[in-house]
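User: Can you predict the 3D structure of non-reducing end alpha-L-arabinofuranosidase? Sequence below.
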Amino acid sequence: MLSEASTARVVIDLDVPGATISRHLYGHFAEHLGRCIYGGFYVGEDSSIPNEGGIRLDVVEALRALEIPNLRWPGGCFADEYHWKDGIGPKADRPSMVNTHWGNVEENNHFGTHEFMALCELLGAAPYVNGNVGSGTVREMSEWVEYLTRNGDSPMVRERKANGRDEPWKVPFWGIGNETWGCGGNMRADAYADLARQYATFLKDHGDNKLYRIAAGAADDDLAWTEALLKAVSCLGCERGPKNLFQAISFHYYTFVGTWDHKGSATEFSLDEYYETIRKAQDVDRVIRGHSALMDAYDPERKLGLVLDEWGTWWDVEPGTNPGFLYQQNAMRDALVASLHFDVFHKHAERLVMANIAQTVNVLQAMLLTDDEGGLVRTPTYHVFEMNKGHHDATAVPVHVVEQPTYESMELVSASASVKDGRALVSVSNLDPTAPVDVVLDLRGAQVRESIGRLLTASKPQSYNTLGDPEAVAPAPLRVEPEPRGLRVTLPPHSFATVSSAL
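Assistant: Sure. Here are the predicted C-alpha cells for non-reducing end alpha-L-arabinofuranosidase:
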C-alpha cells in the first residue's frame, strides 16, 4: 500500500550558465572479466550470432543508442597483467594467457588491440587504453602508443601495417596503470607517483594525436594518495601551474551494502538495505568534494582533470555463476544509483571531466545482459543513460531542491539540469521507495514552451528485466502540467524522470 504523496520544489536558474557537462562523464568500461568481452562484445567470426569481425552487432546497435563517448579497456586489474603484443597479428599465432584476477581462466587473446579499435569505431566511441604498469615496462607502453597513433615509418608503424592497418588511429585517453595501490602492484603512493612521472614522460604525442594521460588515483576518499600525485607535479601555494606530465588523476568508487566479502543481493534486499544503498550512492558527492578541494589547493586554475573511471553498484554474484565473473542482475534500485551519480557529476562538472561505469556488458552494473544464443536484455541502468543523453556537452545550470521529503535526514529527491541547443533538460529522481512525490519545477530566467516528460519506474525497487520480460523496467511517457512557478510532475515511488522543454 502506497504512503500519502509528499511534495517537493526544485528551483532551476535557466539563465545562470555553469560548467559544460562533458559527454565523457557518460563513459563506459570493458574489462577482460567474465563475459564482458568474450560472449558479450565478442563472439568470434564463426559465431551464428550476427557479427562484424567477431563483434556482436546486436550489442553494438543497442549501445549506439546511448551515444557512448569513450570506452575504457582492457582493465581494470587485468590491465596490469596484459601484454599488448600478445594480442596482435594472426589469431592462430597469438599466445594464450591466464587471467589470474578473474576466474583463473585461459584466454586466447583473439580480442586484442585491432579488435578493440574496430569496436570503438563501430560504437563511435573514443578509445581509453589502460596501460600495464604493474607487470609491464615503460618501453612496452610507449611502443603501444607508437603502434596505435604514429604515422610514417618506424618499427611499430611497420608492424601495425603488417597487421593490416595502414593509417594510425586517434587514441586520446591513456591510463597509467590501474589501482596501483592494490591489484596493480600494491605500491605506496610516493613510489607510484614517481612511476607516473616516468611513464608520462615516455608516452609521446605522435602527429596530431594529443594524449590525455590519466594517473591511477585513489580508492574512495583516500586523499593522501591524491595529494601524493599532486605533489609530484605541483606545489602548494606556489604561483606556477602543475607540470604537464599527466593531465588527470583518477579515483574509484563503488556502491554496495555490507562488506567486501558479502555485499548483498542485487534483487533480494530489504527496505533498510535499499536506504543504505541510496545513502552510499549519495556519499559520492562528499568524496568528489574532498578530491576537488585538494586539487584546487595545488591546481587553482584547474588544469588537471578529475576522473572517476570505475563506479557503480557491486553486489554478490548471481547464484550458480562463476564468482570470478562478477555477473549480477540489475534492478530499479541500480537505475536510481546511476541517476543519483549523474546529478552529482553534473554539479562537479568544472573539475570532474570523465567517468566510466563498471561495466558495459554482463559484469557488475551493466548496460546489457546477453546469452550465448543471441539473447540480449537492456537493463534499467541502460535506460537512465539513454534518457540523460541530452546532458552530453550541455551547459549545467544551478539546481536547488528547496523543499523535499526526507528519511532519517536523508534527502529523497535528487535533480540536475542543463541547457543546450535551445532546450532545457531536467533530471529528477524520487528516491522514496514507498510514496509518490508531487514535484514543482520552479523554472527561473527563461520561458519554457512545449515540454516532454519521460518516466522510468517499476512495481518495486527489486524489479529487473529478463529475456522473458524485457520491458519490466522501461521508459514511459510522463504527464507534465503547467504551474504558476513553471511545471509540475508527479513521480511514483522509486522513480527517475526527465523533462525536456523548448526555450
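The longest helix spans residues 332-347. Residues 20-238+246-255+307-393 form a domain with the TIM Barrel fold (CATH 3.20.20.80).
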